[in-house]
Write a structure and sequence with these properties.
heterodimer; A: 248 residues; mainly alpha; MetI-like fold; 10 helices; 86% helix; B: 231 residues; Rossmann fold; six-stranded mixed sheet; three-stranded antiparallel sheet; 7 helices; globular
């Protein structure tokens, strides 16, 4: 309760400072007032077009995250299990990790132009190395003594994978989701802004084109709100998942 | 019936470090053998060789075992699985409730390892080994971290189970009382690179008692042998 009140107080202080800055600058094109921004924000919330844009962005985020989990986890598992494969793939992973988002954006624009696949691909590529390397760390942290016990009792590979590998890797999988989700939101918004054909990023791009700063702020607020909601929903899901394996 | 084991000219080294040197040993069906030796004398290495977790550098191990149970020094239980699931992990068709009852673990099937004491975790470790209906039970300093009452109680359980099933037991320890409580024959090792220094048949009956004159006499004898083996 006390923590909640403190957070609320922090938000109120932030809005007051924002208001003060807006009044002092008196330039709506740079800092619109909170009243103007929130007014527009609630208007946008009621607009089906904006809600559709929000859903389009959220869908791309979830698709990128899903693809990363679908490909990154098995890849990380295989690479983690075989040392030579890790040595071979490490430079490639490092290169993918080091390539700036802007370079992927350029490549996507040259290849496809503005479409929905570009942002998904860029987000996928920017979080894939995190997923692979985190899974590799998880595999390397596996309790070798448990594996030796399983080997001694000739436990089938399917059971070893389910009971030992999955259980050991679960905290790492949850960490991947936690880290990747925030990253995916930011990358998707930037990618939509620069090479997308739909979503909140494109809405921000349109608002900027019309020098509509309050709308830029309002769309940003909406993106933040959607990001928080998605994160909470996914955390609820991962929490339930972890309870299946980890003792209370 | 228990498994038989024949060991001929067994050597094991790790790089330049020689651990086992020319071991020759025969273990009969249903015999209870305890290997007694100082730290680093290769006791655990020998058990790992029998279990196929290590390969000999030279020599031969002939084992007739079809199914082995291994009680590790540390429980090696899957932390995110209950006692029941840990047992199901090694044998889905085993009599879990029966083994839990025999080892006084009834009522703990739904507990996670972290919710159990060290002694109870070690009982689950033993239950897992017995659940596979072994013809060879290997005990790798299985009670070293337990206090005497818990240790004695688990050893009594093993002896009771042995009387019923007659599997072969190979155990390692550096505890004299433990060795005398469990063994039909004690094999005394020299420090590394270890050789089999002496063997001592244990002529105590079924109901072994730490304070009986026979037990104390054998304990003294064993102590003398160990001192001479170390020199």
């Amino acid at each position: 309760m006390r923590t909640g009140l403190r957070s609320l107080f922090g938000i109120i202080v932030f809005i007051l400072l924002w208001q003060l800055l807006a009044v002092l600058l008196d330039k709506s094109i740079i800092v619109p007032t909170p009243g103007e921004t929130f007014g527009l924000f609630f208007q946008l919330l009621l607009s089906p077009v904006t809600l559709l844009a929000g859903l389009q962005t959220a869908w791309k985020v979830l698709m990128a995250l899903g693809l990363v989990l679908l490909l990154g986890l098995p890849l990380g598992l295989i690479i983690g299990l075989f040392e030579p494969l890790y040595d071979m793939s490490r430079p490639i992973i490092m290169v993918i990790q080091a390539v700036p988002v802007i370079s992927w954006l350029s490549l996507v624009l040259f290849t496809w132009g503005r479409n929905w696949q570009g942002p998904v691909l860029i987000a996928f590529l920017s979080i894939l190395p995190i997923a692979i390397l985190t899974t590799v760390s998880g595999v390397r942290n596996l309790d070798k003594k448990l594996l030796e016990m399983a080997r001694l009792y000739q436990v089938p590979a399917r059971k070893i994978m389910h009971d030992i590998y999955l259980g050991s890797l679960l905290p790492f999988i949850i960490a991947i989701i936690d880290v990747s989700l925030g990253q995916a939101w930011k990358v998707i918004l930037v990618a939509e802004y620069l090479c997308g054909d739909s979503g909140l990023g494109l809405k921000i791009f349109d608002a900027r084109s019309f020098v509509d700063t309050p709308s830029v702020y309002a769309y940003t607020l909406l993106a933040v709100l959607l990001g928080i909601i998605t994160e909470r929903l996914i955390k609820m899901g991962t929490g339930r998942l972890s309870k299946l394996w980890v003792p209370v | 019936m228990g498994a038989r084991l024949e060991v001929r000219s067994l050597h094991k080294s790790f790089g330049a470090l020689s651990v086992l040197d020319n071991w020759n040993l025969s273990i009969r069906e249903s015999e209870r053998i305890v290997l007694l030796g100082p730290s680093g004398s290769g006791k655990t290495t020998f058990l790992r060789l029998i279990a196929g977790l290590e390969r000999p550098s030279s020599g031969e191990i002939k084992l007739s075992s079809q199914q082995m149970g291994f009680v590790f020094q540390e429980p090696r239980l899957i932390p995110w699985r209950t006692v029941e699931d840990n047992l199901l992990f090694v044998n889905e068709k085993g009599d879990i409730s029966g083994i839990l009852e025999k080892l006084r673990l009834s009522g703990f099937a739904g507990f996670f390892p972290a919710q159990l004491s060290g002694g109870m975790q070690q009982r689950v470790n033993l239950a897992r080994a017995l659940l596979v209906e072994p013809d060879l039970l290997i005990l790798d300093e299985a009670f070293s971290s337990l206090d005497l009452p818990v240790k004695t109680s688990i050893m009594k359980d093993i002896n009771l189970h042995w009387q019923e099933k007659r599997f072969t037991i190979i155990a390692v320890t550096h505890d004299l009382k433990e060795a005398l409580f469990l063994a039909d024959r004690i094999i005394i090792l020299s420090p590394a690179p270890s050789v089999i220094a002496r063997e001592l048949p244990v002529t105590l009956g079924k109901g072994r008692n730490f304070s009986s004159p026979e037990f104390l006499h054998l304990e003294g004898q064993l102590l003398d042998i160990i001192c001479s083996a170390s020199n």
